[in-house]
Amino acid sequence: MIQTAISNYLSATGHKALNIKAVMFDMDGVIFNSMPLHAKAWVKAFAECGVKFSEYQVYMNEGRTGASTIDEEFQKAFGRHSTPDEQRDIYRIKSGFFRQMPAPELISNITDVVDYLAENNIARTIVTGSGESTTLDRVEALFGGKFSRQLMVTALDVKLGKPNPEPYLMGLRKLGVAPNEAMVVENAPLGIQAGVAAGVFTVAVNTGILAKNDLLAAGANLVFDNMLQLLDALPSLIGSPKK
Ligand code: MG
Question: How many structural domains is the chain composed of?
Fold first, then answer.
């Protein structure tokens, strides 16, 4: 399965080899189990203005900006665009609900994945549409320096955001590696699209409620059900230890 996925990646991109020296992790749903909280907050915020929005839709839209998500749902519900005021108000309501919830926990076994990469001298960074500085600080603290803020790409760094390849291209530049020297770990369709569009081997870990086919349809090179499966695949993906 893994060798087939690598062969498919090489024929799609024209690269001669995949030689992974760095891994770029998305944050929500990959590092933190924060999507159930975001989903509940979005559904409640939309309900307040009479828009029906399901948790499944939250997962499908993950990575889109708040304004864009709100505008799209207004067009479906009311047949018109949302105003900037409406976008700001609904996003503020959503953020308010989110902040009332407990801080999200780490995704199971993500620490083992990051430790394995660090032990094998594979560089690591976070590429996220989030700009929550407290959460970003938590990543540095919880992983004991295995991630550094200087290498991270956040909402504050990019203009376009996922599904545009911009954030992952910026991640490659910060890490100083070529697309075929990296791997993206994502959980969401738009993030997968961004990784693939940046020309990077993109694996999805289905940590949420989406059907596996939604992740494959977005172009994921491999889809795992959990981090333990990714951990088991890492020796085959990164090759012999690069000490
Ligand atoms: Mg995510």
Answer: 2
Q: Please tell me the distance between residue 41's alpha carbon and the centre of ligand 1 in angstroms.
A: 16
**pLDDT digits 0-9 by tens, 102-146:** 999 999 999 999 999 999 999 999 999 887 788 889 999 999 999
Cα–Cα distance for residue pair 121/73, rounded to 1 Å: 44
**Same domain, residue pair 115 and 221:** yes
Q: What is the pTM of this model?
A: 0.93
Say how many Å lie between the CA of residue 164 and the centre of ligand 1.
Answer: 14
Say how many C-beta atoms besides its own lie within 10 A of residue 112's C-beta.
14
Residue 240 has pLDDT above 80, yes or no: no
Alpha helices, H only, 51-207: 55-61, 66-78, 84-100, 110-119, 133-142, 166-175, 189-197
Whether 189 and 139 map to the same domain: the answer is yes
Distance 243 CA to ligand 1 centre (A): 30
Cα(119) to ligand 1 centroid in Å equals 25
Distance 133 CA to ligand 1 centre (A): 16
Between the CA of 14 and the centroid of ligand 1 the distance, in Å, is 28
Computed over every residue of the chain, the mean pLDDT equals 94
Residues 160-200: tens digit of each pLDDT? 889 999 999 999 999 999 999 999 999 999 999 999 999 99
DSSP class of residue 31?
Answer: T
- What per-residue confidence (pLDDT) applies to 7? 97
Question: Does 243 map to a domain?
Answer: no
User: Based on the domain organization, do 114 and 94 belong to the same domain?
Assistant: no
Tokens, residue 220: 């994921």
